[in-house]
UniProtKB/TrEMBL annotation:
It comes from viral metagenome. GO terms for cellular component: vacuole. InterPro entries: Class_I_gatase-like, GATASE, Pept_C26_g-glut_hydrolase. One of its GO terms (molecular function) is gamma-glutamyl-peptidase activity. This is Glutamine amidotransferase domain-containing protein. One of its GO terms (biological process) is tetrahydrofolylpolyglutamate metabolic process. Residues 37-228 form the Glutamine amidotransferase domain. It holds the Pfam family GATase.
Length: 275
């Protein structure tokens, strides 16, 4: 756990990220799992190749060495955390990333953030912290010295704190006290930012691994043009990984996007569906 983060840049003209598919909570015509198109676009607009990884794969190690990092997207917390197959896949990739000599970035957004807390902190469930608006961040002392914020200008950090800067769509979360009371989370992560929910309660909104390049945000940076610095940071982390990803196609070149019919609140958005 206390290995020092080291990395070796490799000569490769592009990098690639694996995105774990999200199992459906109910039957839809377009298959058994999906990835929201916004997540794919977030990376492809930066020239990153995206490899969809079936949540029920048994080939975790094969996928692991084909990608430079893993992205765990959003989804329905209560349902998906009960899906042992999905949780097992997250656990396996996290374990593989801890291997000696590896620098394997992992990023979780919204439910992906919670899945990392579930796996690393052994948290069985989360408390209600509803937030469905655009709100500012509260940057912690550790956040100001974090790897994630190291390249951000003072002006941009001020924007994140002083203005409605982050898009949120969560029902659940974890309070700073709950976080600190969990020895696994306290030893593994720094809390980078907190946010205030619709009930005026503070919850953890951004985290960063202390000894490993594992990151999570409770909010949605992929939904705003003003938060591209976060994907730029993660892409810079992907480029530090040693794996060589050959022949991985763009998702949009092999799969057609359809409306996200499984999310009534996102019926105007598009998803990639997988059988």
């Amino acid at each position: 756990m206390r290995s020092v983060i080291r990395s070796t840049r490799k000569k490769q003209s592009f990098c690639c990220v694996g995105i774990l598919t999200i199992p459906h909570s109910k039957k839809v015509k377009q298959g058994t799992s999906h990835i929201m198109k916004a997540y794919v676009d977030w990376f492809e607009e930066r020239g990153v190749r995206v490899l969809p990884i079936p949540y029920d794969t048994k080939e975790h190690e094969v996928y692991f060495y084909q990608i430079n990092g893993l992205f765990i997207p959003g989804g329905e917390t209560v349902y998906i955390l009960k899906n042992e197959t999905f949780v097992d896949s997250v656990t396996r990739f996290v374990e593989l990333s801890f291997q000696k000599g590896e620098y394997f970035p992992i990023w979780g957004t919204c439910f992906g953030f919670q899945s990392l807390l579930h796996v690393i902190g052994d948290i069985p469930s989360f408390q209600r912290h509803p937030n469905h608006g655009v709100t500012p961040l509260r940057i912690t002392k550790e956040g100001r010295h974090s790897r994630m914020f190291a390249s951000f200008t003072k002006r941009y950090l001020h924007y994140l704190e002083a203005y409605p800067s982050t898009s949120n769509n969560n029902e659940y979360g974890i309070s700073p006290r709950e976080f600190e009371d969990n020895p696994h989370l306290r030893r593994f992560f720094h809390v980078v930012t907190t946010s205030i929910d619709e009930n005026g309660q503070e919850y953890v909104s951004t985290i960063e691994g202390i000894y490993y390049p594992v990151y999570g945000v409770q909010w949605h940076p992929e939904r705003q043009n003003t938060t591209g610095q976060f994907v730029d940071f993660f892409v810079s982390e992907l480029k530090k990984n040693k794996h060589v990803c050959k022949g991985i196609p763009f998702v949009r070149g092999t799969v057609q996007a359809h409306r996200c019919v499984q999310y009534p609140e996102h019926k105007n958005l598009h998803c990639y569906f997988f059988s």
